[in-house]
Amino acid sequence: MDWTFLATQATVNGLIVGLLYLLMAVGFTLVFGVMRMVNFAHGEFYMLGAFGAYFLVSGAQLPFMAAVAITFAGALAGGALLEWGVLKPFRRDELNGMIATIGLAMILQNLALMFFGPDPLSMPPVAEGVTRLGKAVVPTARLYVVVFACAVLALLYGFLRFSRPGRALRAVVEDMEIAAIQGIRSRLYYPLGFGLGAGLAAVAGALMAPLFSVSPFVGGAPLLKAFIVVILGGLGSIPGAAVAAMLLGLVESYASLLLAGSTADMLIFAIVMAMLVLRPKGLLGRGEA
Amino acid sequence: MKIPHIVLLSSVLAAGGGAQAQDTLTLGALVTLSGAGAAWGQGMKNAAEIAADQVNKAGGLDVGGRKYQVKVVAYDDKYQANEAVTVANRLVFEDKVKYIIGPVGSAPVLAIQPITEKNRVIVMTLGFTAKALSEDKPYTFRPNVTTAEVSQPQIDWLVRTQGIKKVGALFPNDETGQQIAQDLEAAYKKAGAKLPVKEFFERDRVDFVPLLTRMLARGIDAIELDGNSPATAGMIVKQARELGYAGKIVRTGGPATQEIVNVAGKAATQGMFVHTPIDPELPSTKAYMDLYAARYKHSMNGFSPAFYDGANLLFEAMRRAGTVDDTEKVRAELERISGFEGALGRLGWTGKAMYGIDHQLDAPFYVAEVQDGKEVIRARCTVEGCR
Amino acid sequence: MTTLALAARPGGRVGPLGMAGLVLLAALAALPWFSGAFVQHLAVLVCLNAVMVSGLALVARCGQLSLGHAAFVAIGAYASVLAARHWGLSFLPAMLLGALASALVALLLGWAILRLRGVYFVLVTFAFGELLRLALLDGAALTGGANGIAGIGAAQVFGFAFDTRERFYGLALAAALLSLWMLHALFRRPLGHAMDALADNPALAESTGLNVHRIQLLAFVAGCALAAAAGALQSRYIGYVSPESFNTSVSIGFIIMLVIGGRRSVWGPLVGAMVLTPLPELFRGAVQTQHIFYGAALIVILRFLPDGLASLPRRARQLWSRDAA
After folding, report:
1. Partner A contacted by B298 (CB < 8 A)
2. Cβ pair C289:A289 closer than 8 A
3. pLDDT digits (tens, 9 = 90+) for A63-80
4. Are residues B177 and B264 in the same domain?
5. Chains that touch B (3 or more CB pairs under 8 A)
6. Do A213 and B38 touch (CB under 8 A)?
7. How many domains does chain C have?
8. Closest by alpha carbon to B141, among B348, B319, B291?
9. Could you give the ipTM of this predicted complex?
C-alpha cells in the first residue's frame, strides 16, 4: 500500500467533503444565530432543493445553474413564508420552537413521500470523468460542486459583510436588543434569516443532487452533518462552522482509512459528545451553554 | 300487483345469489411499503394481488367444492420488528387471516414467528436470515432464493471463468448485510478466492469515496455488491468508477440491475456480472412480466415473480388439501408439491441440509452480464451449480 | 405550576367531574379484558408507552428535553434479557438489574451533561442515542448485532407466568398505574415542587438554595430507570429485541406523545400514549397522512395548547368559571 498516495487521496477527499459539509451547515448555523432556533427541518429543505433541481433540470430541461438559482429563490420565499406563518409564535421560545420544527420536518418529508414516492431518482451528472491533482484522483463532478460551493459561500460572505440587509442580519445575530434599538426591525429579519437558512440548505441540496441520488430520505444525513459541524464550530459562528466542517471532513476521511466503517461513525459521535461536555461553546462559538 | 313483483324480485335475487354464493379467502400481506425495502415490499404485495386477480377472474378459487374470492389485505411494517408484530397481531386476530405473504426483513420475520407458528398461520417470507426456516417452524416458507442458495454456484462460476482472486465488498450495517457478509466470505473461500476487504456502513450513507479509497488501495480485482439496496449499489458503482477503478464489478444476489444502471449510467455498468432470478426469455416469466407491466406503472422488482409463484403454490396446496381453513393439511400438501410450473420455471422445495426443513423454494437462477444497460444471460444455474 | 389536571382541586379533594373521569378511566382500563386479542395488544403497548413517556416527563419537568430516551429503554431491555440468559436471573431481578444499569449510565452521563441548557442537552442526548444504537449493532457477540435476540421467555413472577395477552395486560396496567402514582406522589412533595420551580426559572430556584444540578440529576436518573423498567417489560412481551427498535425516531415518538399529552401533568404521558399508540392502526393504509397528521398536531398543540391535551379540563374549568363569574 502506497501510504503517501493514500494520505494525499484521503486529504483531498476530506477537504472536498468538508466543503460540502460546510455548505450543508452554513444555513443551519445562520438560523440559530438569528433566531436561536435549532431547525430540525433543515434537512428537509435540503431535500426539497434536491427535488427542485431534479425537476427543473430533468423535467423542464433548464441549465444547471439556472435551476440552482431558481431553487434558491423558491426556498428563500418558502422558508420566509413558513417562518412567518407557522413559527412566529415560537420566536423567543427555543425549546418549543425546536419541537415545532420537528413537526415541520415530518410534514415536509411525508408530503414529499406522498407526491414523489420513496424510490431514489437519479439526475444526469454535471460533468463526467476524473481530474487528477498530482497523484490524487477527484471525480470532476465533485470538483464542479466544490467550485460552485465556494462561489455560494463567497456570495454569502459578501452579502453579510457589505450589504445593508446582511449587516443588519449580523447585528441581529450579535445582539437582538441592541439591534432593535438601532432600528432594525426583527419582524423583518426573522423571516429573512429563516428564509436565507432554508435557501442555503436548498442550494446545497440542488448542488449535490447530481452527485448523490434524490429521494425524500436524503435530508437525514445533511441534518446530522449540520448538527455536528455546528456543535463543533459553535452555534451561530460561521467561521467556526467553516473550520469545523473541514476538520470533520478530514477526520472522517482519515478515520475511514484507518478504522472500520462503523468504528469511525462511533468515533465521530464520541468526539461530538466530548466537545459538548468539555467546550460547549465549540471552537469559535459565542453562545452561552 | 306490487307484492307479487317484490316476491318475484326477491326470489330472482335469492336464486341468483344462491348460485353465486361466494366465500372470501383473505390473504394477508405484511410487507414494507415505506422506507428502505419498499421496492421489495411493493413487488410482493403486487404479486399477491396479481395471483388473486387471476384466480378471481377464473370464477374464484375452487377448493373442496366451494368457490372463494381471494382478497389481499396489506399493511406496512416499515421494516421494523415492533411494527411487524403489531401488524401480525392485527392480521391474525382482527382480520383472521391464515396465510401471510411477507415480511420483507429478517428481524420482522423472526419477531412475528412466535405468533404465526403458534396460531398455525402459513407465512411466505422474503427474510434472508438462515434462522427464518427451521424444523420447529413448520409454517414458514421462503419462495425466493437467498445468498445461501445462489452465491456458491455463481461464485464458483465467476471465479472459474473470470479469474477473480481478491474481492472487496461494502455492506450496510443491518441484519441482512451482516448475514450476507458471512455467507459470501465462506462462499468465496470455498471457490478458491478471497474476500479480505469487508466494510460496514450506516444504511443511509451516500458517500462511499473514503471507504472505496481504502478498499482500492488493498489491490482488489473485483467489487461485490450483494447485500446493498439497489440505490446504494448504484452509488457504489458510480463512485468506484469515478475514482478510476477499472476492475470487475459483480453482484451475486438481490435483483437490482435497472436501478443500478439508472444511478450509475450505462458506461459505468458495462461488463458488470449480476445475479438475476428471472430469464425474460422464458415464456412463463415473460407472461408474468407483461401482466405486471399492464397493471402497475413502475418497473417490476426481481423478487416479484417468486411471490407470485408462492401465492399460486398456496392456492394449489389448498386445492389439493380440499380446505382453506385447516392450515395443517394445507401445509402438508404444500410441502409435497414438486415439479410445479411457475413463472420462474420448474419449482420444488429444498433446504433440508442447510435449515433442517425443506421449506426453501428451489428455482432456477442465472448469471447475466450487463451490456449497454441490459442483462444478457451468460450462465444458467440451480443450487447444484452453474453452466 | 404544579397541576394535576384531571382530578385534583385546591385542597386535593376530587370533585364530581374528577370522579366521573376516574370511573370512565377505570371502565376503559377494564375494556381490553373483554375484547379481542388485537385490542389487548394495543392496550399493552399503550401502558408500556405510558411508563416510558412518564420517565421522559420526569426529565422534562426539570426543564430538559431528552432526544435519546429510547437508548435508555434499550439499556433496560438488553440488560435484563442478557442477565436472564447468561446469569439465569428470573424476571423481577433481571428487570431491576436493567433499571439499575440504566440508572448508572444516566448518572454518569447526566453528571457530565446536565449543566448544559436547552438545545445543547438535546443534541448531546441525540448523539448518545446514536452512539448506543451503533454499539448495539456492532456488539454482535453479546447483543446479536442487527439480528437481535429472539426467543425471549415470558415474564414470570413467583412461578406465575405472564404468557397470555390477558395476563400480560394486567402486568402492564399495573406498571402504568404504579408509575402514574409515583409521579403523582412525587409532585405533591417538596422535591416535586422544587423540580417545577427549576423548570420555570433555574436562576431564581438556585438563589433560594436549591441545588439545581443535584435535583436535575435525580430526575434524569429516575426517568431513565423508569424507561428501562418498561423496556425490560416490553422485551418479555414481544419476545424479541433488536437495535432498530430503539432508534431516534422512537425517541421522537416519545417526545410527540409527551408534548401532545401534556408536559406539566401527571396524566400527560398516559393521555399521549392513549391518543398516539392506536392512531397508526386507524391510518394503516395511509402512512404518510398519519405522519403529516402527527407533525401538524404537534405544531397546533404547541401553539394553542402548550400544556398538552391533559390540560384541557383545567382550561375548560377556567373558561367556565370565568364565564360564570
Report:
1. yes
2. no
3. 888 999 999 999 999 999
4. yes
5. A, C
6. no
7. 1
8. B348
9. 0.82
